[in-house]
Amino acid sequence: MSRSAEKVRRARSDLIWIGVSLLVIHCAALAQFTKGFLLTRPVRNEISTSRTPDPPFDRAVLLIVDALKYDFLDTEEFPVSEISPYGKHAFKSMFWADPPTTTLQRLKGLTTGSLPAFIDAGSNFGGSLIDEDNWVAQACASGSVAFVGDDTWTSLFNNFSVSYPYPSLNVRDLHTVDNGVKEIMPQLIANKSNTVVIGHMLGVDHVGHRYGPDHPEMALKLRSTFEFVKQIAEQIDDDTVFIVMGDHGMDPTGNHGGDSEDELKAGLFVYSKQPKFSYQNSESSESSQNSENSESSESSESSENSKNSKNSEILSYRQTDFVPTISAWLGQPIPFSSLGIPISEGFSDEYDFNALDSVFKEQLQTYAKVAGVDVPTGDISSAVMHAKILDELMSVWVLFDVRAMIKGCVLMFMALVYSIRLSPAPQRANRCARLVPYGFLFGLLAGLFFGAGHGWRYWADVLFYTGCGNLLSLLGLPRRSIFSSKWSYFAMLVLFIESTVLFSNSFVIWEPRVLHYCAATIIIILLLACLHTSSALVSNVGLRLAISVLFILRVLSSITVCREETSSMCETTFYLPNSSMFPLYYLFILAGVSLVFLPLIKPFFAVSENFVGVASMIVEFTVFALLLGITFWSLEAADTRGLLNGLLGSQTARIFLARSLLSLGVAFGLFIWWKSPPLFQLVLDKTGKIKRLAGIMNIYGSYAILPIFCILWSLIPVNKPPGIISLVGMVYAILAILDLTDLGGAKDSLLPPVLFEMLAYITFFATGHQATIPSIQWDIAFSASKTAFSFWSVLAVTLNQIGPFLICAFPTTLYRLWRRSPFKEPIKAEMLLGTAMAHTTFVSGTRTLASMLAALLFRRHLMAWKIFAPRFMLGAIALVTTDVACILAVLLCSNIVQKVTAFFNKND
Fold it and tell me: Is residue 8 part of a domain?
C-alpha cells in the first residue's frame, strides 16, 4: 500500500472514530435530558381493604369495543336504545378518556382508576404486569374472572381463571379477534362460576385505522358488533350488569393516540334486566339524540366534570369514574390509586349511595395523603373540589428533574462546540481520534462509579459521564472560527431563525410552512448570486435549477397531513377526507414521475460525463423500482377497496414485492456500488493512445451520491404513493441544490447543510408525518410482514419515520466533494469530508438543542405535552439518525477516495 493510500485509510478511520464520539455525546445529552423531562407517574403498591355497601349485582359482563366513540351510539348501525329505553334498566354516557389514547394506557386507567403520564404512550407495544391495586385483581381474589379478546390484557394481568387472548396489532385483520370473542364469550357467560367475564373486540378500531370512520366497512362492522351486543344482553341473568364501552375514540382519519376531542370521547352503555339504575331520562333514542345535538356545546364543558345531575339528558363521565363504580357493583374494595367518582346514575334509589360516597372520600383522602397532597376543605365528591385534587396530584407527579435537563442541554451545547472546533481543522482529526478511546474509558468508569445500579435513569448518568469523557478529544483541536465566508454568516442567521421558531407553539404547529418559506428564500438568494455572475451559462443553468427546486418545494408543501390544531385552516391532501386511505390519483402521478425520472436525473451525471457504469445501472434501475412500487401500492389499494377478496395470494405477493425492494437497496444496490470502479473512462485516440480521462470533473461526487438512490429503493414499499412522490422530488432537489450552491459560490460554506436539513424536515412532513404521536403510520408495519413484531415490520416503520433524514445525510456529508476533480493530495478529500460531517452535526445538533431548550423553558406550558414534547422527540430522532447516517456516509464516501487514489498511484 502506497503512502498516500495509507494516509487516506488512516484519515477515514479517524473520521469514523470522531463520528462515533459525536454520536455518543449526542445520545448522552438526549438521555440525560429525557431522564429529567419525560417522567413517569409513581406507582403505589398499597392494596385497598375498604368495604363498599352490599353489591347490587352478583356478576359483571364487560365488553370493550375498541375505539367505540360516543358518536357511534344510537346510530342506525349501533342503536343501543333498542335493547332497553334509558332509565332504571339502562343508560348511556360520554366516556371521556385521559390522554394518551393508546389501548394499553386506557386499560390501565380503566382498571386502576389512575392517570397516565405522557411518556407512558411509548409502552403501548410492550406492556408489563400492573403492580398497582386494581378492580380486576380484586375480582380475581374474590371470585373467577374469564377473558377473551385483545392480548394486551394478558400482558397486564396473569391471574385470569381462564383466558383466550388473540394477537391485537394486525390492523389488516378485521375479523379474527371479533369472531373469537363472539364464539367464546357466550360460553364464558354460561359458566355461572365466572364472576366477571371480559371481552375485548378490535374490529371497529382496525376498520378505523385501515379505512376511516366514514367508510362503508365501518357501518358493516358496527352492525355486526351490535348484533352481538343484543345477543349478550339477552343471555345475561337478572343479577348481572352488562357494560359496553369504548376505551377511546378515533379522529376523522380513524387513528388515535393524541388528545383531540374525537379521540377522547368514547361511548359507554350499561344495561341490567332488573331496575338497578336511577337515570331519569327515559325518552326515546330519537328525542335523546335531538337533545344531544342541542346541548353539544355543554357536553364539552361537562367532559371536565365527573359528577352529573340525574336530570341531565347527556351524561358525561371520566373513564376513571368507572373503577369505583364497578367495584361497588361487585361489592369490592375501591382500588387504592383510584381517582374517579362513583357514577350516581349507576345505582338505584334503594342503594346506600351515601355509604359508598363516604368510602370513596376516605379512599381518595388516604391516597392523596400518601401522595403528599393536601386535600382541600369541602365536598371532594363535587366536580370543582375533585378537579382541584386531580390538579394537585398532577403537579406532584410532574416534578421535572431540572438539573438533569440542564445537564443534557449543556452537554449538547458542548457537542456543538466540538463540531465548531473540528470544522476548520479536520487535518487535526488524528490527534482528536487518538483521545476518543481514553475518553470512552474515563467516562465509562466515572459513570459506573457514580451512577450504576439503580435502573435506566441512572444508566443515563453512565452515558452522560461517557459523553463528557469523549469531550476530552477536544483537547486535540485548535481554537479557530467555523466562519469562512459570507455564506456561512448568512447560514448562521437562517439557522438562528429556524431555531427560534421552535420556541413558539404557533410556529411549531405551522413548521412545514415556515421551513418552506425559509428554503424558498435561500433558493432565490442563490439564484440572485448566479445571475450576478458574468457567465451567461451560469446564469441560465442557475435559473433553471432554481425554478425546478422552487417547483419541487411547492409540490412538497402541497402534500400535507393536518394537525388537530390547524384543521380549520388546513386541508389534508395525503389521505382521502375522513379516511386513512390515499387518493388513487397519486398512483397515476407516480406513474408519470417514473416516466420523467430518468430524463430529469441523467443530466446531472451526463454533464460531467459520469453517466457510465454503475451510475447508469443504479439510476435506470430506480425507474424499475418505482414501477415495482406502483405495482405494490396498486395491489394494496385494490385490497383496501375490497377488489381482491378471495385472492389468497395477494398478500403474499405484496409482502414478496416489499421485501424484495427493501433487500435490493442494501444487499444488491450498495453491494454492487461498493464493488464498482469510479465513474470515469479512458478516451483513446485513433492510434489507441490515451487522449484524456472522461468524467474526472466530478469524480468524487457523482460516485458518492449514488447510495441515495439505493436507499430510495428501500423506502418505496414503506411509504405510500404521495410519500414516494415526495421522496423522488427530494432526490431531484438534492442534486439541483448541489449544483446551485456550486454555481452560486456557496459550496464551501455552512449553507448547504442548513438547506439540506430544511429539505429533510420538509420531506418528512410531506410523507404524511407531523411532530405528533397520532401521525405515526403504524399500518406500514404490515407492508412487509403479516405480524407486528417481526424484523420486517420494525424495519418498515423505522424507515418510514427516518427516511428523509437518512437520505439527506449523504449530500450533507459529500457536498464539499461535488464537482471536484481529483486532488494531487488525496488526504484533502478526506479533510473535506471531515469538515462536511462537522457542519452537518452542528446544524442538526443546533436544531435539536433549540427543541430541548424550548421543552425546558415551557415544561409547565399548557401545550408542553401536545407540542413541545413531541417536537423534542422528533428532533432527537432526527439527530441520532443524522449521526448514524453521517458515519455511514463517511465510510462509503471514503471508498471512492480510496479507489481514485489507488487508480492514480497505479498509473503514475
Answer: yes
Q: Are 815 and 734 in contact (CB under 8 A)?
A: no
How far apart CA 804 and CA 36 sit, in angstroms, is: 29
My answer on whether 448 and 497 are in the same domain is: no
CA angle 28, 34, 38 (to 5 degrees): 170
Q: Is the distance from CB of 538 to CB of 516 less than 8 angstroms?
A: no
- Residues 45-82 pLDDT 10s: 889 888 888 999 999 999 999 999 999 998 999 999 99
Please tell me what DSSP assigns to residue 149: E
In this structure, is residue 782 part of a structural domain? Answer: yes
Residue 722 has pLDDT above 70, yes or no: yes
411 and 529 assigned to the same domain: no
Contact 322, 343 (CB under 8 A): yes
Note whether 604 and 743 are within 8 A (CB): no
pLDDT above 70: percentage of residues in the chain: 84
Range of the domain at 645: 487-906
Residues 475 and 497 in one domain: no
* Cα-only R_g, the chain: 31
List, for residues 17-34, the tens digit of each pLDDT value: 888 888 988 998 998 898
Boundary (domain end) residue, out of 463, 479, 495: 479
Q: Where are the beta strands (DSSP E) in 642-732?
A: 681-684, 690-694
Question: Looking at the whole model, is its pTM more than 0.85?
Answer: yes
pLDDT, residue 903, reads 76
Q: Are 112 and 134 in contact (CB under 8 A)?
A: yes
Residue 464 and residue 576 in one domain: no
Residue 156 lies in a domain: yes
User: In this predicted model, what pLDDT tens digit does every residue of 509-547 receive, in sequence order?
Assistant: 999 999 999 999 999 999 999 999 889 999 999 999 999
Taking the chain, what is the end-to-end CA distance rounded to the nearest angstrom?
14
Least confident of 269-273, 351-355, 727-731: 351-355
Domain-embedded: residue 383:
no
pLDDT averaged over every residue in the chain: 85
Give dist(CA 347, CA 353) in Å, integer: 7
Please state the domain count of the chain.
3
The count of residues in the chain is: 908
Strand partners, 271: 90, 242
Is residue 783 located within the same domain as residue 693? yes
- The answer to whether residues 728 and 817 belong to one domain is yes
Same-domain status, 756 and 843: yes
Whether 686 and 547 share a structural domain: yes
Q: What is the structure's pLDDT at 539? A: 94
Q: Are 883 and 841 in contact (CB under 8 A)?
A: yes
